[in-house]
Amino acid sequence: MNSGSINMINSRKYKAFTIVELIVVVVVMGAIAGFAIPNYTRSVENAHYQDAVLQLKAIHSAQQIYKARSGQYWPTDGSTHYAYDMNNDLNLNLIEDGITFSCASAAPATGFSCQAERTGSSFTVTIDQAALSSSNPSCTGNCP
Questions:
Q1: Less crowded by CB within 10 Å, the N or C end of the chain?
Q2: pLDDT tier, 133 (very low <50, low <70, confident <90, very high otherwise)
């Protein structure tokens, strides 16, 4: 072998990653993903919970306005209604991003109960005609 061949072998040796270096990078990336994915999932669930609470508080306020104008809570027919009806009848703009909203009242409509249930999750947030407090709205199930 001449010196040109040796130089070519040595220069090729430094132009690629070794298998050990690649394995170390993959292990580090796996460790980062192992910590990041559960935290991300919890953050997304917490955001959905906060959204449900916020929108239920908007429903509560709209119910108070509706009662001040008509003398009773909505819905007045004693049945259960969902977001489409609430948006139309209470002049709201509820966005059902994986959350199902429903409201019911007893006839005559002297009170109401509204729920926000996360699709594919195990929490339900409920609000009623009582004043807003630490227990209204309330959450049942796997609450963040």
A1: N
A2: very high
* DSSP states of 37-76: HHHHHHHHHHHHHHHHHHHHHHHHHHHHHHHHHHSSPSPT
The C-alpha R_g of the chain, in whole angstroms, comes to 28
What average pLDDT does the chain have? 86
Average pLDDT for 52-77: 91
Total of domains in the chain: 1
In the numeric block, which tokens belong to residue 93? 């703009």
Separation of alpha carbons 9 and 137, rounded Å: 72
**Which of 113, 98, 85 shows the shortest CA–CA distance to 49?**
98
Are β-strands 138-141 and 123-128 bridged in parallel, bridged antiparallel, or unpaired? antiparallel
Q: Which two tokens stand for residue 34?
A: 């192992």
| pTM, entire model | 0.76
Domain that includes residue 30, residue range: 3-141
H or E element that contains 107: none
